[in-house]
Amino acid sequence: AVFKSSFNRSNLFYEIRPKHNADHDIIRFIKQRPGKSGIIYCLSRNKVEELAELLMANGIKALAYHAGMDAATRSANQDAFLMEQVQVIVATIAFGMGIDKPDVRFVVHYDIPKSLEGYYQETGRAGRDGGEGQCICFYSPKDIERLRKFQQGKPVSEQEISNQLLFETQSYAESSICRRKLLLHYFGEEYKTDNCGSCDNCRKTYKMVEAPELLGLILETI
Questions:
Q1: What is the dihedral of CA 65, 61, 110, 202, to 10 degrees?
Q2: What is the chain's Cα-based Rg?
Q3: Fewer CB near the terminus (10 Å): N or C of the chain?
Q4: What is the pLDDT of residues 82-113, one digit of tens each?
Q5: Is 113 within 8 Å of 126 (Cβ atoms)?
Q6: How many C-beta neighbours within 10 Å does residue 44 have?
Q7: Sign (positive or negative) of CA dihedral 35, 39, 40, 45
Q8: H-state helical runs in the chain
Q9: By the 8 A CB rule, do 38 and 107 touch?
């Protein structure tokens, strides 16, 4: 469903990172933010449990949350996160709906989301109190391929919709344009500032070079 974003998230920083070293990056990122609460989203239950165990093994207080756990354990883990008995909750998208924790300081997507709507909703759980909020998404083209394969065998109309959503998410991840501008455009709104100053693309400095010979080779190859 397409909906108005009411995009008032100037306190959030958006970043896409390559996934090849995600585990190490996540551990280092959290350890640099002692005492700051965060949510890490994974697409599979196995990865949720594996990553929660990895964080705990590295001295980070973390718990898992997914629909395959019994209700009592899920509730206890959620309460521990809300009461700040643990720093990080590693979860599937089953976690977060109705969570009233205003001081979540980071939301990490270990896997690329299936849609920009899901990404928007999940990143919106960071910085609800107006304080800092960092939204990091790890991206690999292989994840997109894997998600497309999961659609095989489903009705053609459902596959077409899913593939379109994945294409939009992939375009967002691979773009060099301001991420805030892209998100607003997706939800039918306009961000008139050229540089938001709060995403990885706007903070990058791109070096312009003359490349007529390389361009010629590319065109010949095509």
A1: 130
A2: 19
A3: N
A4: 999 999 999 998 776 557 789 999 999 999 99
A5: no
A6: 12
A7: positive
A8: 22-31, 45-57, 71-82, 116-123, 141-150, 156-174, 179-186, 200-203, 212-221
A9: yes
